[in-house]
Write a structure and sequence with these properties.
mainly beta; 11-stranded mixed beta sheet; two-stranded antiparallel ribbon
């Protein structure tokens, strides 16, 4: 039995100090836009956080760009968009040491939507997403993840620059990804896509 079925809500008064838990559905896509978009290769992830999570419900979009780093090229977090002002400081800390630390964008609930139905996840935003470094930005657009095939159980551990350890357990499904860019009347497929269903993330502050 997957932990998402048996895991219980964990109350947390101080998310900087207390153990906390998130229940999420998470879509990841690598997008290589046409040159006319004036955007580099990027990875976009959209997350729907369920209301039974320690911090409550929230929709988020994370953007990383394919940039040169001291150890070679890789995806570097450059922007984070979410719809809850009271969690901004938490996300800023989560991205410490990356360009996204200084680019946390809090928007209204009707300006970002991440919705899940079965093995389909839809993410849309009605405001531009400013990227770092300037002058890059993603105009209002949307992503559609369509999961297919058998779900594969998985788990992993991530440690942030702030010293927070996140332990994840999930069901992974391959996904077709469509990136819809209304400003240019463009609809194109992502080169890689996955959908993490029944995802439980336990966070252990330093």
């Amino acid at each position: 039995m997957h932990r998402a079925v048996s895991a219980q809500k964990v109350p947390a008064k101080d998310l900087f100090k207390d153990f906390s838990r998130m229940f999420t559905t998470w879509g990841w896509a690598v997008i290589d836009p046409p040159k006319s978009f004036n955007l580099p290769k990027m990875m976009i992830s959209a997350v729907h956080i369920e209301k039974q999570s320690s911090l409550g419900a929230e929709d988020t979009v994370h953007v990383s760009l394919w940039l040169k780093t001291p150890t070679g090229y890789g995806f570097v977090p450059v922007a984070f968009v979410h719809d809850r002002p009271d969690t901004a400081a938490l996300w800023k800390r989560n991205y410490i040491g990356t360009p996204a630390e200084h680019n946390i964008q809090t928007v209204k609930k009707d300006e970002i939507q991440v919705r899940v139905h079965g093995n389909t996840l839809f993410a849309g935003w009605t405001v531009p997403i400013s990227l770092w470094p300037p002058p890059y930005s993603i105009p209002p657009a949307c992503l559609l993840f369509e999961g297919y095939g058998e779900a594969r159980p998985g788990k992993g551990t991530m440690r942030t620059g702030a010293g927070i350890t996140n332990k994840m357990e999930f069901n992974c499904i391959d996904a077709f990804v469509t990136f819809m860019h209304p400003e240019s009347k463009y609809e194109g497929c992502g080169t890689e896509g996955i959908l993490l269903r029944d995802c439980v993330i336990d966070s252990y502050p330093q």
